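Severity: low
Component: inverse-folding endpoint
Summary: output formatting inconsistent between runs
Steps to reproduce: submit the following structure tokens with default settings.
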């Protein structure tokens, strides 16, 4: 019978002692072996031996945790199926929660007397709830990982959707969005990006880009699905089906996320700490860089969450026929997805802040282009394509630039802090732009949009200049 690899030969004590000496010589300054096969300090390796023993125990304690020791090239095969599942849950989550009210608005108005402001007020509540709980949630994700949060998020979202199906008026309808908002923050929003960062390490930027590319299909899938279900079975059954999908499909996928335990905080100068862990911003610059980033993304998000809701109306108000306006607006999804695809494939060759800078420069240029000739179909097509591509790039940068600047350590907490000003701004965007369109018309709204985006561009320029110091 062959002996286990690495075990001493089954001979005399003298041969065993000789074998142990050979092992000691082959591992200088590391480990020696006692007669039982345990590790004991070698002549020059006491500290290192103890460290290796402790690490061996820690690996056992972390069984099932993401294997961040894998090189980036091996993590995609290791977690590819899980990442595909997470992309599916993002499509389901955004489609069933965020996009469904657009289709259900007419049913809600006829059945329980809700006006458009009340229907979409649910989304506002969702964003405000996310702003409130995201900082605390982000710190939890850094310490414990995302599996529990995302699993609970699926359950809470299912509960909220179930309560939504029972709504009888404005109060009960809006109250359910408080529950849905908690579930949305725990399983969608930034939580999915933290999951990718904890799994994929250096390949996080590309994977987030690819997952956001897939997420762009949510409206294309769930708008017709919601229309079909609500027309054939009623809006309440439709919402209950979405709740069941959360439990039957989303929950099992989230439970399959590996257990995670945060790395202990290490000395930035230690050899085991990578640039990806610490980020590129030195400690003294973190606060000003954070606020510049928050200003830039909040200002650009104010436009990207407000203006697209009124693009069709702006074109119609400028004299473009309704059918033509709808056709032109439909180019938005394709342009956004194409920009995200290009960023996912080729964006890693450029610093992410440069890519964000390009997107932030294209946004106001597109608005100014449209404001020059708002009644021209050619200018309208150019505006929709350029503006949507810019917003697609910025949406990816909003998830990946904080990672590049501040590192993977504390990534969840950083995204949680950034979520507060962003979500509050996003929540105000629909109402603000409705007022702008009413008071200023198409050209005035586009000019204000360009000015707001110039603020975002200026903040990013200052941020890039500070990084060069």
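Observed output (run 2 of 3):
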């Amino acid at each position: 019978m062959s002996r286990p690899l690495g075990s001493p030969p089954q001979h005399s004590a003298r041969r065993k002692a000789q074998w142990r000496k050979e092992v000691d010589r082959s591992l200088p300054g590391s480990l020696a072996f006692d007669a039982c096969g345990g590790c004991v300090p070698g002549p020059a390796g006491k500290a290192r031996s103890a460290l290796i023993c402790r690490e061996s125990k820690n690996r056992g304690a972390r069984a099932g945790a993401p294997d961040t020791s894998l090189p980036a090239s091996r993590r995609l095969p290791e977690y590819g199926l899980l990442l595909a599942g997470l992309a599916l849950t993002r499509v389901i989550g955004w489609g069933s929660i965020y996009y469904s009210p657009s289709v259900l608005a007419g049913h809600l108005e006829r059945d329980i007397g809700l006006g458009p402001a009340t229907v979409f007020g649910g989304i506002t509540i969702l964003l405000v709830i996310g702003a409130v709980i995201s900082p605390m949630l982000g710190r939890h994700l850094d310490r414990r990982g995302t599996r529990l949060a995302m699993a609970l998020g699926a359950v809470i979202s299912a509960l909220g959707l179930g309560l939504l199906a029972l709504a009888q008026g404005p109060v009960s309808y809006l109250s359910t969005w408080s529950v849905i908002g908690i579930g949305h923050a725990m399983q969608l929003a930034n939580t999915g990006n933290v999951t990718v960062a904890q799994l994929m390490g250096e390949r996080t930027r590309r994977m987030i880009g690819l997952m956001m590319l897939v997420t762009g299909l949510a409206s294309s899938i769930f708008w017709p699905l919601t229309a079909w279900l609500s027309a054939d079975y009623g809006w309440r059954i439709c919402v209950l089906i979405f709740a069941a999908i959360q439990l039957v499909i989303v929950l099992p996928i989230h439970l399959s996320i590996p257990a995670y335990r945060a790395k202990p905080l290490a000395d930035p100068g230690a050899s085991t700490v990578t640039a990806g862990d610490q980020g590129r911003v030195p400690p003294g610059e973190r606060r000003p860089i954070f606020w510049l980033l928050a200003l830039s993304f909040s200002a650009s998000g104010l436009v990207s969450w407000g203006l697209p809701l009124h693009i069709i109306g702006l074109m119609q108000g400028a004299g473009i026929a309704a059918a033509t306006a709808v056709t032109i607006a439909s180019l938005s999804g394709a342009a956004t997805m194409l920009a995200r695809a290009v960023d996912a494939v080729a964006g890693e060759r450029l610093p992410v802040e440069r890519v964000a800078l390009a997107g932030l420069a294209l946004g106001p240029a597109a608005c100014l282009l449209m404001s020059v000739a708002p009644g021209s179909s050619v200018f309208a097509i150019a505006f929709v394509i350029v503006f949507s591509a810019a917003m697609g790039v910025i949406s990816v940068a909003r998830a990946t630039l904080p990672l590049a600047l501040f590192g993977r350590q504390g990534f969840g907490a950083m995204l949680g802090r950034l979520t507060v000003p962003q979500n509050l701004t996003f929540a105000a965007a629909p109402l603000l732009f409705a007022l702008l369109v009413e008071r200023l018309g198409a050209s005035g709204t586009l000019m204000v949009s360009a000015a707001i985006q110039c603020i975002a561009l200026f903040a990013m320029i200052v941020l890039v200049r500070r990084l060069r110091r």
